[in-house]
């Protein structure tokens, strides 16, 4: 049986290599930095929760993307990206890092007005989070080169203005906890990406602006809004 048409495979660049990391699914952790939880007016005691983005919304570093439709409040969200290289279910926290292939810098672009409307009406966040070109991700760095970053500055600047400033050590749920929690609900598999939440300072971007997200030891990600 043949497929009636081909669909291009989604992938992310790998730093210093011509190879690419195939993307299967993108899981995103909501409210994982205490200051961001507070700025959004949510309960800091809540357990982690997840939403998803389709694989084909990945955008390369340095890309210029169109301002998305149906919003007047596009926000940047600086995030550490975890690339899964080994699948599993019900993974223990002390074994979770064995499943990580590498790490990268991401920007969870969000149509904030649509998200606020969805929250108010008790509806899913898909329209706010999973739109075209909503997941800029810089080239991934393998664990063999960068280890497992548990601390380090994470920042976002828009046209040079510092908007977000935090540290990976401020995560409420660190990477091993995220993997254990997620794998208790469903099997994770090679090619899955996890965007691990954003520090405080999220804010709007308008057409013509450039956002640079940087994580200590992992480089930077540049995205321009057309």
Automatic annotation (TrEMBL):
* Record-level Gene Ontology MF annotations: acetylpyruvate hydrolase activity; metal ion binding
Read off the SUPFAM superfamilies from this record.
Answer: FAH
The keyword Transferase appears for this protein: no
Q: Where is the Fumarylacetoacetase-like C-terminal domain?
A: 26-225
Please name the InterPro entries in this protein's record. Answer: Fumarylacetoacetase-like_C (IPR011234), Fumarylacetoacetase_C_sf (IPR036663)
- The entry's keywords: Hydrolase, Metal-binding, Pyruvate
Q: Tell me what this protein is called.
A: Fumarylpyruvate hydrolase
Q: Which organism is it from?
A: Citreimonas salinaria
């Amino acid at each position: 049986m043949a497929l009636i048409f081909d669909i291009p495979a989604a992938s992310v660049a790998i730093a210093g290599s011509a190879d690419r990391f195939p993307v299967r699914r993108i899981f995103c952790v909501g409210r994982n930095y205490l200051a961001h939880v507070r700025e959004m007016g949510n309960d800091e005691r809540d357990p982690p929760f997840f939403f998803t983005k389709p694989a084909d919304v990945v955008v390369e570093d340095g890309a210029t993307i169109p301002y998305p439709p149906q919003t007047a409040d596009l926000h940047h969200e600086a995030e550490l990206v975890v690339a899964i290289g080994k699948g599993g279910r019900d993974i223990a926290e002390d074994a979770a890092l064995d499943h990580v292939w590498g790490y990268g810098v991401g920007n969870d672009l969000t149509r904030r007005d649509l998200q606020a409307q969805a929250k108010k009406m008790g509806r899913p966040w898909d329209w706010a989070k999973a739109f075209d070109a909503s997941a800029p991700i810089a080239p991934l760095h393998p664990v063999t080169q960068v280890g497992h970053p548990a601390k380090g500055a994470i920042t976002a600047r828009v046209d040079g203005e510092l908007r977000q400033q935090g540290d990976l050590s401020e995560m409420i749920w660190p990477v091993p906890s995220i993997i254990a929690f997620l794998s208790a609900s469903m099997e994770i598999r090679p090619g899955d990406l996890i965007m691990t939440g954003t520090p405080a300072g999220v804010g709007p971007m308008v057409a013509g602006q450039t956002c640079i997200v940087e994580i200590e030891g992992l480089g930077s990600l540049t995205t321009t809004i057309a």
